[in-house]
Amino acid sequence: MRAPIPPIPPRKSQYGIDPSLVKKRVCELPGMTSVLIKELFPDMPDVIYPSDRGIETIRKATEEALKNVDMSMIKPEHSVNILASHHGFTLLGGEPYAEMLKTLRDVIQARTGCKDIRLRAGVGLRFRETEEYIKRYGLDKHFNGKAVGIAPIDEGIPIETEIGTLYGIKKAYDADWIVHAHNSDVREVHFHRQVDRAVKPFGMSYARIETRSTYHQNMGPRAANFVARAIFDSPFVQKKFAFACFLTVAPNGIIGVDADNDLYSLNDRITFIGCRYYGKMMTLLGSIDECIVALDFPCPVVYVFAGGVIYANFAGANTDLYDLDDVPLPSYTWYTEAFYGKKGKPLLSDIPPVNPAIKMCVHNYAWVGYPSVFFSEHIPTIVVGREQADLFNRDPQNLNYMKHALIADDLETAMEFAYKVTGTRKVLIFDGAIGGINVSEPLAEYLLKKAPEVNERVENELLPKWLRQRGVDLRIGEDVRKKYAVRG
Amino acid sequence: MKLVNLVAVVDLEKCIGCKTCERVCPVLAIKVVDGKSQVDTERCRGCAACEQRCPVYAIRMEKRKEPILVGVDVDSVDYGKVIELCGKAKLNPEQVICFCTGTRAEEIAAAILMGAKSPEDVSFMTGARTGCKVECIQPILRLLEAADIKSVPPKGGWQWYGRTVTVWEIPEGVRRKHSSRGFYFDEDEKLLNRVKEAPLQGRR
């Protein structure tokens, strides 16, 4: 069995405990190993990062992708807002996304002569998160002091759409042109269901609270994504939109950079990538019969990563998150969470339970800043260290998280307890390991045995269905194959 | 219901009186007076919106010596009226509206029946919208509208701007034009109608 892959290190942040308090990582415990994504699915694309060529490869890929983009609308006297989102900085340590943003700025200036180029970096529910990244990656310096974090409670601007008035963050749109700088990692499949993934930030990172609440409370789980499309299609945004530039990601790493003046073309390509590659990982992990989950990543509980899949998705992996016809409500979304009644049971009998394969959650390291009580309420959870428990008890979004969780003094005690109580030795570690996943040996054996069958099923049965449901032609796969190092 | 265990504290040396804190506070508990921010500690619901947006980092959140439990007892109002109000807003009384505090539609409705006239009143009375500060503004506005209350956003504030569209209001033309791209308007409308009509669990 392979040695575990070094996990993403703890990160100093106001949303997490001090890195010095993370005494041990879960993958360092006895019996842990790793499985490479390519061992599971040999047809995963080749990655450009990480590689021995380092971060320079991201700069080169960005420059190459931008060669096909029309920037003639940007004049030297104009202003440009490069719109970014927090999530990009959580991918592979954050450096690739930061490098793409820096390159974007440099290329726009070189090609157009425009010098008033700003970075506006949106957030989720941790309003200073991108401020931290801007400092960490030297973006403030690179953008000559014109890099700021923007939050959904900042001053808004009404945007007239075909479904009425929605609201954006004023600072996102206070330039002549906007450049949409994002990534294709799927992350919240439980919310966006891989529908208009490329468009979503217009309804989230760049949007005010009214718009985000529309998405999560007014529309329903499969109509919600239209909120972002309505804003993007609005005359106000269309007048400002110059082009999009995306870090293209697969479960095993960065596979390239995609840039286009037509966001919907780019969207079709990343829909294919999301369904084909992430769909395989999601389906494989969904086949696990029983396991202990370990959280060990500098992100809120829901967003910790394993092989490109976040914990929130694994909590719903007992259903097919990509199936829009037969799965109206995944086991976890905010709509699902909302629909549990006062006796703790779903209001509708057909709401699926949280993934019953998760027997226990060992919370070694994860951040606050996202309402996570649903997880400790529905999954037996043991938190390592009183400092981490105290942090959750101070977080306005998680005042009830610890009401349902136990505290262990150290990781070893927590794991021993989990082994004893659950009776399983299968452990899935969400620690952001790059290129593979860290797991216990019994789970590694299980995954390696199961993967070929999952591969067949996704290729022949599920992928055609998923793309049909989204109105995406299966032949888009040809474009993707040409663009990236894809086999099969 | 929320146990408020934090309170905002202003460092007057650092405060520049820019009013950002005043504009983002969901319960109107912080105000700039004579060029400096002042916190009404009894009113503060510990959401940290001011602390998170202060451009000069002049605000910190401190633990309250004595936490305050805020909430509205739904049994103190006519539950028939709660059901009526929620139904009009197309919500099930038991559905969760604020994921951070676990506040359900029935409690927001009860707050409105007890006199809340704005999202700020609702947040002050129930604690809803004092966690993430983001996700529950629309159902609160829908419930206020269902009670025929015309709320006006705080003058000069950024607390909220207006109610937006619901799935029931999506025009037929929009549904037809976009349904082939994975937007399930009709099906989700049916789903939300089923939730609205679902039997209550907590009442005898």
Write the layout of secondary structure elements.
The complex is a heterodimer of chains A (488) and B (204).
Chain A: E1 32-36, H1 37-40, H2 56-66, E2 79-85, H3 95-112, E3 116-122, H4 129-136, H5 139-142, E4 147-150, E5 156-161, E6 164-169, E7 177-183, H6 189-192, H7 209-218, H8 226-233, H9 235-240, E8 241-250, E9 253-260, H10 263-286, E10 291-300, E11 305-306, E12 309-310, H11 311-314, H12 334-338, E13 358-367, H13 373-378, E14 381-384, H14 386-394, E15 405-408, H15 411-422, E16 427-430, E17 436-440, H16 441-469, H17 476-483
Parallel strand pairs in A: 2-3, 2-7, 3-4, 7-8, 10-13, 10-16, 13-14, 14-15
Antiparallel strand pairs in A: 1-17, 5-6, 8-9, 11-12, 16-17
Helix pairs in contact in A: 2-3, 10-16, 10-17
Chain B: E1 2-10, H1 20-24, E2 30-33, E3 36-39, H2 49-53, E4 59-70, H3 79-88, E5 96-98, E6 103-104, H4 105-113, H5 119-126, H6 137-146, H7 172-178, H8 185-197
Antiparallel strand pairs in B: 1-4, 2-3, 5-6
Helix pairs in contact in B: 3-4, 4-5, 4-6
Short description:
The complex is a heterodimer of chains A (488) and B (204). Chain A is built from 17 helices and 17 strands.
